[in-house]
Design a protein that fits this description.
The complex is a heterodimer of chains A (325) and B (501). Chain A is an alpha/beta fold. Chain A has 11 helices and 10 strands. In chain A, helix 2 links the parallel strand 1 and strand 2. Chain B has one domain. Helices cover 75% and strands 1% of the residues of chain B. In chain B, helix 5 runs antiparallel to helix 12 and helix 7 packs parallel to helix 21. The radius of gyration of chain B is 22 Å and the shape is globular. The chains are: A alpha/beta (325), B mainly alpha (501).
């Protein structure tokens, strides 16, 4: 009797192991959901869809994009944090969802560091300093001099109070010691329109939202916020090159899984996404949408999240939109 | 002459077999998703975007655009038959369309909305083709103060919209404003009335309220009547489907006015087709000789908004194509598709990408023609939907409403919210309070507030900014005129009453 039980136990154990191995090697067993925590049509959505399309080809399973917009991406990210950590639910993590949102919003239902297993960065897009064509400044230094000469006259736009473009703009004003009025709009599109019409003179815009107007000559670009120049705008200096010391503002996007996702799956996904992003077609589409393809190790992305989080918590305090608890 | 050459080029592109096929796929898909309540063009266009990566740019854009304007046709079908608007822009179609269906005039109502849609689209296409670049520059003169004054006129029109008691109408409009306050404050980023519920940060979705207050409330109302819901369940002979000569005659000028209004509002990137349809409804009611017919199946109040929302969705391509600024979420995705395909929208698009620009314009016209041809034969079928026994019909309507609301953000919270608004809508129905002013308050409230505060921020607190800018001043004067129009008859009556005593 006892022996039988033992046998039964061993058998169950064996089945368990075999099933476990079978499961691991068979991943993905069903379509993968990629949560895009923003509404359709924005740059995060487009990057998400381009990556999903490429990843589906690498994994041989459909990758379904699920838009869960709301509260700077934190609503959808909270859903992703609570998903079953089996690699079948992933989400797009960005500067907004994993740093700016948690730094500025009063209540966020996840911990951007503890609740996630980062996989890889997939794209980076600089915030670019753009001005209305009627603004006479041709360089960052000229703009700074102009704003200082006419205090209280200049307005800078953003895609919303507490949005990444607001913080990037405030970061510029703070770093250059400028006094400009912040005017919030309902998204990147309206903010760009306001810059075009001259309602605001300055915008720290997200590249995908303004690249098109820069190319058509409707607005003028003065600098890019990344540490390196953008391949899309090779003639445009970085903020640091233009003399704004220590300035670095970019929107990075990566793929994250819920914390507790098995290492083997994270590795498999990492390899597959890397291959997808390096595919020339995928890379071309990302660039066309204003996002430069980048990749990283899971640890590098984790470090990126940590350093950005503390940086934006600090900035939010300085400019006075620190969260109230 | 150059214009004709351009059009010839456009039709050359749009009539090539594959382009024509994608155009037809686009408008057909668009029409059907327009029929399903809640499932809007945004989700569909978003879902189809990756497919277009593997298509030629012109064909891709033509297909996505077809879905966008095709949805405007479908949206009115369920609005008229089931009091369930398929899209936000067809909310106002319910007001006249549903009473017409109840009077057994569903056929003429559907035929006339289809004709009005086609008419509105055609007017707007001509405007887009002829004047796109200069109109886009005009749109840029609309800044925050102008939007504020324009929206204020709309809000005043909300009072005009009320059918019964003015007091109830105002109360509903104010309630709409209050609901519109829910969510993150645009100007400061602070949450208001969100009760720490993350889902409420972006505010209450308009479509949730529309589906609930009209569709769900009507289901509760019909079920409460018990087995008496038999008004609709009779066979409609084909003869009754065709609108009378009289219908066509009284519809003509409202369609013209609706198209013009829709085309103008469509050019403004910050407005949207729902505003066009509400505005043209209010205009028709003002102009009508006998406004008391409105709300009881007045043809003018049905065709004008339909012409307007279709004109709007075509004209919305002006800022999208020539400024690279999307008018709403759907055009944002179409814009993204252009960027991915390496097309740079901007003032020079007519010369940089003439094939795309003129091909798209020609495809608009072909697409609308396809929609007209596609819609008319279906009407007999749609009307027959009403002869389905209600015990079978209502669970289907309920199911589709839930799917539609869920698809907005893939969030069950919206479904619960719709259930709550459905119950509230039934209570309002019983109290004799119209839902329309509430909806208008809900759309306009947040825009009025946002633009008001932004204008004052820009003027550094000086309120004369609304009066010193000519366009803004003009709207303010229109608003004052409307108030006088509404108040004056009441005052005169009171004076007469005083003098007679």
């Amino acid at each position: 009797m006892q022996k039988r039980l033992l046998n039964g136990g061993l058998l169950a154990l064996a089945i368990g192991i075999v099933a476990g191995i079978g499961l691991a090697s068979a991943y993905p067993t069903k379509p993968i959901t990629l949560i895009v925590p923003f509404p359709p049509g924005g740059s995060t959505d487009i990057v998400g869809r381009v990556v999903a399309d490429g990843l589906a080809k690498e994994l041989g399973q459909p990758v379904v994009v699920e838009n869960r917009g709301g509260a700077g991406g934190t609503v959808g990210t909270a859903v992703a944090a609570k998903a079953t950590p089996d690699g079948h639910t992933l989400s797009i993590g960005t500067t907004s969802t994993h740093a700016v949102g948690p730094a500025t919003l009063p209540k966020v239902a996840f911990d951007p560091v503890k609740n996630f297993a980062p996989i890889t960065l997939v794209a980076e897009t600089p915030y670019v300093l753009v001005v209305n064509n009627k603004v006479p400044a041709k360089t960052v230094a000229e703009l700074i001099a102009l704003v200082k000469a006419q205090p209280g006259k200049f307005n800078y736009g953003s895609a919303g109070a507490g949005s990444t473009t607001h913080l990037a703009g405030a970061m510029f004003a703070h770093a250059a010691g400028l006094k400009m009025e912040h005017i919030a709009y309902n998204g990147n599109g309206p903010a760009t329109t306001a810059l075009l019409s001259g309602e605001v003179q300055v915008l720290m815009g997200s590249m995908p939202a303004v690249l098109n107007q820069i190319k058509s000559g409707a607005i003028r670009v003065l600098a890019v916020g990344t540490v390196r120049r953008s391949p899309e705008l090779p003639d445009v200096p970085t903020m640091q090159q233009a003399g704004v010391k220590g300035f670095e503002a970019s929107l990075w996007l990566g793929v994250v899984a819920p914390a507790g996702t098995p290492d083997a799956i994270v590795k498999q996904l990492h390899a597959a996404i890397l291959k997808a992003v390096k595919n020339p077609d995928v890379a071309k589409r990302l660039r066309a949408a204003g996002a430069e393809p980048v990749t990283s190790s899971p640890k590098e992305m984790g470090d990126q999240i940590k350093t950005n989080l503390s940086k934006y918590i600090e900035l939010a305090k300085v400019i006075g939109i620190a969260k109230k608890k | 002459m150059e214009f004709l050459d351009n059009l010839a080029l456009g039709f050359n592109v749009a009539l090539s077999p594959t382009t024509l096929l994608y155009c037809m796929i686009g408008v057909t898909v668009g029409m059907f998703i327009g029929v399903l309540p809640g499932i809007g063009p945004i989700a569909t266009v978003g879902m189809l975007l990756p497919i277009t990566f593997h298509m030629r740019p012109t064909e891709a854009i033509i297909m996505l655009a077809g879905i966008y304007y095709g949805a405007m046709y479908g949206g009115s079908i369920t609005a008229i038959l089931l009091k369930l608007p398929g899209t936000a822009a067809s909310a106002v179609t319910v007001v006249e369309g549903y009473p017409m269906a109840q009077q057994g005039r569903a056929g003429p109502a559907l035929v006339m909305t289809t004709i009005a849609s086609f008419f509105g689209a055609c007017v707007a296409i001509v405007i887009v083709a002829a004047f796109a670049p200069p109109l886009a520059q005009f749109a840029l003169r609309f800044q925050s103060p102008e939007y504020f004054s324009l929206m204020m006129v709309g809000l005043i029109a909300a009072a005009v919209l009320a059918h019964g008691s003015l007091l109830k109408g105002l109360a509903m409009a104010v309630l709409g404003l209050v609901i519109g306050c829910i969510g993150q404050d645009r100007n400061t980023g602070l949450p208001r009335f969100t009760f720490d519920i993350g889902e409420l940060y972006e505010g209450v979705q308009f479509v949730v309220v529309v589906v609930a207050m009209f569709g769900l409330a009507e289901i509760i109302h019909n079920l409460a009547l018990g087995g008496k819901h038999e008004i609709l369940a009779r066979r409609v002979p084909l003869r009754d489907l065709i609108p009378s000569r009289e219908d066509l005659r009284i519809s003509f000028w409202p369609m013209v006015r609706g198209s013009a209004l829709g085309a103008v509002i469509g050019i403004l990137p910050g407005a949207g087709p729902a505003i066009s349809s509400f505005a043209s409804y209010a205009l028709e009611k003002q102009l009508a000789r006998d406004p008391s017919r409105f709300g009881k199946g007045a043809m003018e109040g049905l065709v004008a908004p339909e012409a307007a929302n279709n004109a709007d969705s075509q004209a919305a391509f002006i800022p999208t194509l020539t400024l690279g600024v999307p008018g709403d979420a759907t055009t944002a995705i179409i814009l993204a598709a252009m960027l991915i395909h390496g097309i740079t929208p901007g003032p020079k698009i007519t010369t940089d990408a003439p094939q795309l620009f003129w091909g798209l314009i020609a495809s608009f016209w072909i697409g609308n023609l396809v929609l007209l041809v596609l819609n008319l034969p279906f009407i007999g079928l749609w009307v027959r939907m009403l002869s389905i026994p209600y015990r079978i019909l209502f669970p289907c309507v309920l199911l589709f409403s839930c799917i539609g609301v869920l698809s907005l953000n893939n969030d069950a919270f919206d479904v619960y919210l719709a259930a709550a608004f459905g119950v509230a809508g039934y209570v309002f129905l019983k109290l004799g309070c119209e839902a329309t002013p509430l909806l208008l308050g809900l759309i306009l409230g947040p825009m009025v507030e946002e633009n008001f505060r932004r204008s004052l921020q820009l003027s550094r607190g000086d309120p004369t900014i609304f009066l010193t800018r000519p366009i803004s001043l003009a709207f303010i004067l229109v608003g004052v005129f409307l108030i006088v129009l509404v108040v004056a008859p009441g005052l005169r009556r009171r004076k007469q009453a005083q003098s007679s005593t």
